[in-house]
Design brief:
Elements (H helix, E strand, L loop, with lengths): L1 H7 L1 H8 L3 H8 L17 H11 L9 H10 L7 H10 L19 E3 L5 E10 L6 E9 L5 E7 L4 H14 L8 E4 L8 H10 L2 E4 L9 H11 L11 H17 L11 H5 L3 H18 L17 E4 L11 H4 L1 E2 L11 E3 L2 E5 L11 H7 L1
Parallel strand pairs: 2-5, 5-6, 7-8
Antiparallel strand pairs: 1-7, 2-3, 3-4, 4-10, 9-10
C-alpha cells in the first residue's frame, strides 16, 4: 500500500485495492496507550473483598450458590455486599463454577458388542415427506448391527408405541429370537422409551438399551442406514400417499439386503452375512484373485491380493483400551456405521409391518403372558 500510494496517491491506491481511506489513515497513526480505568470511589476495599471471599470459602457456605449465601447472611442480620458483587469477587478469583452439592445424573454410555447375527439389533424411526406441507409418513426400521441386515420395517401414518410394539413382536417371532438372546438398542424417542415396548421386551426376555441424552452418535448404524435410503438417486422429494411410500420401500429394502455390497462387512451383502454364506463367498473371491495373480504376478507389487475381511466383532461405543493400542487390522473391531434393510409383509392397524422371510415359525414361550396383557 505504501509504495502504491507514493506513486499514484492514497485515494487512487485505496480505490484500486478496495480499502477504505479511513482505515489507512487510522493505521498510520501511532497507537496511544489506554489510560488505566480509575477506581470508583464506592468500590470495595481489598480487605472487604478478602472478607467476602473468606465468607464464601467458609465450610458452611462452600457448597452453596451465592444467592443462598446472600440470603442466609441477610437472615442473620449481616450484609457484606450485593449478590452481583459476590459473583464479581468469585470471578476475580476464577471461582465462578457449580458450587452446589448435588447429585449429578450422568447417563451411562452404551457399550454393545455383536459377534454374530441376531445378537444386537438397532431400531429407529424417520420421517418421509408427504404430499403437502407438514404431512409426514413414518418409517420404522430394525437393523442387525453385525450383518447390517434389516430384519423388519414398517411405514405408518404416525409414530406410535403400539405400532412399534407390534413390529418388534412380529420381527422377533419371524427370526426365532429366544429369551436372553438379543439386545435391542434405540435412541430416547417417545416410542422407544414407551411402557408398551418396555413390557414387550421384558416379556420376550430381550435386553433394551438407549442412547445418552443429547448424544447424536450413540445409534450410528440406524442413522447411517437412513442416510443410505435418502441418498438413493431415485428417492423422491415427497411421497404422494402411504401406498406410494411402501411401494418405494419394498424394492429398496430387497436391494439393500440382497444386492448391496456393504463396505462395513467386507463388500458382502447383508443377506450373505446374516445367513452364514459369507465364508463361502470369500473363498470363491479368493480363488478368483489367486487366478488373477497367477496370470499376472507382476501386476501385484506388494503381495497376492486377498478379498476384504469380514469383521469378527462390531461395537457401538467400544470401551477405551486399557492395553497398548492394537493395529486396526488386528483389532477385529468394526466401527463403520453403514446401512442395511429387509422385506416381507403383514398389515395391522393401517400399517404394513415387513420382516425378512424366515424358513420356520417361532412360538415365544412367553406369548401367553403377552396375550393376557392385551
Amino acid at each position: 500500500m505504501g509504495e502504491l500510494a507514493s506513486a499514484v496517491g492514497t485515494q487512487a491506491a485505496c480505490r484500486a485495492l478496495g480499502v477504505s481511506r479511513a482505515t489507512v489513515y487510522r493505521r498510520r497513526r501511532p497507537c496511544s496507550p489506554q489510560a488505566p480505568r480509575p477506581r470508583p470511589a464506592r468500590a470495595l476495599a481489598e480487605a472487604e473483598r478478602h472478607a467476602i471471599l473468606a465468607e464464601l470459602h467458609h465450610p458452611r457456605f462452600i457448597d452453596l450458590a451465592p444467592a443462598e449465601v446472600y440470603a442466609t447472611l441477610l437472615d442473620e442480620g449481616r450484609y457484606l455486599c450485593s449478590l452481583r458483587t459476590m459473583y464479581r469477587v468469585l470471578a476475580a478469583a476464577q471461582e465462578v463454577r457449580e458450587r452446589r452439592n448435588q447429585l449429578r445424573h450422568v447417563a451411562p454410555k452404551p457399550e454393545l458388542l455383536a459377534t454374530r447375527p441376531n445378537e444386537v439389533w438397532s431400531w429407529d424411526i424417520t420421517k418421509l415427506l408427504g404430499p403437502a406441507k407438514w404431512t409426514y409418513y413414518y418409517l420404522y426400521v430394525i437393523l442387525d448391527i453385525f450383518s447390517r441386515y434389516v430384519v423388519g420395517w414398517m411405514v405408518a401414518h404416525q409414530e406410535s408405541a403400539a405400532l412399534a410394539e407390534r413390529l418388534i413382536a412380529t420381527t422377533c417371532e419371524k427370526h426365532e429370537i429366544l429369551p436372553e438372546q438379543l439386545t435391542i438398542h434405540a435412541d430416547r424417542g417417545s416410542s422407544m422409551t414407551s411402557t408398551p415396548v418396555a413390557l414387550l421386551l421384558a416379556d420376550l426376555g430381550i435386553t433394551r438399551t438407549h442412547s445418552r441424552p443429547h448424544v447424536s452418535n450413540d445409534n450410528p448404524f440406524s442413522e447411517a442406514q437412513f442416510k443410505t435410503l435418502k441418498y438413493r438417486p431415485d428417492f423422491p422429494d415427497r411421497f404422494g400417499s402411504l401406498e406410494e411410500a411402501r411401494a418405494f420401500c419394498h424394492p429398496f429394502f430387497t436391494w439393500y439386503n440382497t444386492a448391496h455390497r456393504h463396505g462395513g462387512i467386507g463388500l458382502l451383502t447383508p443377506a450373505m452375512v446374516h445367513y452364514g454364506h459369507a465364508e463361502g463367498v470369500r473363498i470363491q473371491r479368493a480363488a478368483v484373485l489367486a487366478a488373477a495373480y497367477a496370470a499376472h504376478p507382476d501386476r501385484f507389487v506388494r503381495q497376492p491380493p486377498q478379498p476384504p475381511a469380514l469383521p469378527a466383532a462390531v461395537w457401538i461405543n467400544p470401551p477405551a483400551p486399557t492395553v497398548p493400542a492394537v493395529a486396526p487390522s488386528d483389532a477385529g473391531v468394526n466401527l463403520s456405521a453403514s446401512s442395511t434393510m429387509g422385506a416381507g409383509a403383514t398389515i395391522s392397524r393401517g400399517a404394513a409391518i415387513c420382516v425378512s422371510p424366515q424358513s420356520s415359525r417361532f412360538t415365544s414361550p412367553t406369548r401367553s403372558s403377552l396375550a393376557a396383557r392385551h
